[in-house]
Amino acid sequence: MSSTQTFSTFPRLPPEIRRLIWIHALPRGRIQLFARNVPWENWRLLPPVIAHVCRESREVAANHSVVRGFPTAQDTDTTTWFIGSRDILELHGGYPYPLSNPEPFFSAAEKLAINAGDFEGDISVVVKDLIEGQRFHSVKVVYLIVEQIETAYWPRFRPEMTEQDKGKGTVLDLCSDEDRRKIEAYKTWARGQEMSPVFPRREDVEFALRSSLDNVILQEIRHYHERLLQVGHDEGRSSFPTTSPIPSDHPWILQQWRQLPEFCPAVLILGWR
Known about the structure:
The chain has a domain at 110-270. Helix content is 33%, strand content 17%. The protein contains 7 helices and 8 strands, in the order αβαβββαβαββαααβ. The chain has helices at 15-24, 55-63, 103-108, 122-132, 177-192, 202-231, 251-258, and strands at residues 31-35, 66-69, 79-82, 88-92, 111-115, 141-150, 170-173, 262-270. Strands 1-4-5-6-8-7 form a 6-stranded mixed sheet. A two-stranded antiparallel sheet has the order 2-3. Helix 3 (103-108) links the parallel strand 4 (88-92) and strand 5. Helix 4 (122-132) packs across helix 6 (202-231). It is globular.
């Protein structure tokens, strides 16, 4: 049998069903990098494959993407297609990048990735913005990158990766059973190739990471409380504390904490082009 299959009755399906199928076909897990002093053309995401199929599929892809370009003197065709519900927004050095106006990306992103070694810098600023709700209105999870690994064989972690996305790598969540299985399968395969890759284990990194993160979160919530006191704004909350310093177990602090997204230790796998 031919490996090429067609579904000739697809155009007869109701528009709502067709759109759900197109949405299901959108890529996931691509990395949209934001970094100071890194050429934009090197880290933009190309249109997903379905954007080239027909007018309907391109409309679906565009409606689910932040489609925007940052032309440079060397390259005027620098449009990126960031799918906030599927892709990962990696913040790497220089956040919040005021000169590039990345607010549409911040608003659309449901997953962030950031270097776990930068608690005194970018992480504290990101946590501040998550607490105040001025950016990242849709974020559900923040990956804290504890290690970066380069390997020519990284597509084994994501066999569904298309040619146009190769070279940008992937993020493996150390809290995810599925991603941990991918790591173990890769290590088994690598041993057969006489390689001995080493990956960090969740139990070895999570405690220290959580301790540092909790300190940053508590500090930023207290700073937020102090700023609210200064402007005399209680947000309409009867439980809003009106004295400072505020104890760490106060219900208002716990309430702010619960509103934050999940933070997970992760590994960034980069490929060799």
